[in-house]
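Fold it.
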Amino acid sequence: MDGYSPIVFKDNDTFLILDQRKLPWKKEYINVKEVNDVCKAIKDMAVRGAPLIGITAAIGLYFGVKNSENWDEFEKKFNYSYDCLSKTRPTAVNLFFALNRLKEVKEEKKHVLPLHKLMKKLRATAIGIWEEQKGQDKRIGEFGSEYLKDKRSILTHCNTGTFATGGIGTALGIIKTMHKKGLLSLVYVNETRPYLQGIRLTAFELKNESVDYKIVTDNSCGMLFREGLVDAVIVGADRIARNGDTANKIGTYCLASMCKRHGITFVVAAPESTIDRTIDNLRQIPVEERSAEEVLKIGDKYFAPEGSKAIYYSFDLTDAKLIDAIITEKGVYEYPYRF
């Protein structure tokens, strides 16, 4: 993905966010001026993908406090930035993982470091989360490619690659690793309504990696499975409960249910930071409901009759018993899960 880093953070603190809503037609970066720009970019889906949301929020939190001239101003800006960022995408637990990493550093070091050194420490911590994710992606890719080494045709949903993590990706990282090892025949890419992350972003990444793929509509899985065209489904996750219940992009539950019906391997790939060990099951996972307009129109054009109503859950919830394996950077977990 040379030349398409989803975020850019330079030594002079220039912070750029690739506007993923405009891909693949246009490469345009948002030049961040203040923390509110980061909050808006996350909330409005200019940047997305649970791990990348966390990384972006961590840098955004540093960005919100970096010009503080005294401790009172620093504390005020930190609290404002944390609050603003934490309200952007409530389902993605990586967001809170990253923000809390910086909060822990603040609380631990504020009495032992001068202000300017504490801010450097926060900056380094934010960048460190990004570097950690890159390594985690590679390990997930290795574990996943070994687990699925006998599967040749893979279906994936949404985008779980570079545009979602800043590394090679989680579920898509497994697919890329399998391709490099010569284990893949074909990847089926769900279009992923209403933002079309599959057709726009996943297809773009697979083309860039010279992986053979076909785009399919989100409602094609039943026919693909019935015809024996898919060996396994790999998806990402935005939050995983202690028992393995998983929140992911809307449409995941349908895929998992149909996989169970047809005896097809269903795998979730995510970093350990996506596992929320503070909750027992899916009933405790908050599900983001976004604007109905995102369903009623594609781009700037309305397709529904005037006055139509819609409902849009951005995520759905998949029972642990429908998931054959959850793959993280620590290895392969199989049902039943006891995180």
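The CA atoms of residues 205 and 338 lie 34 Å apart.
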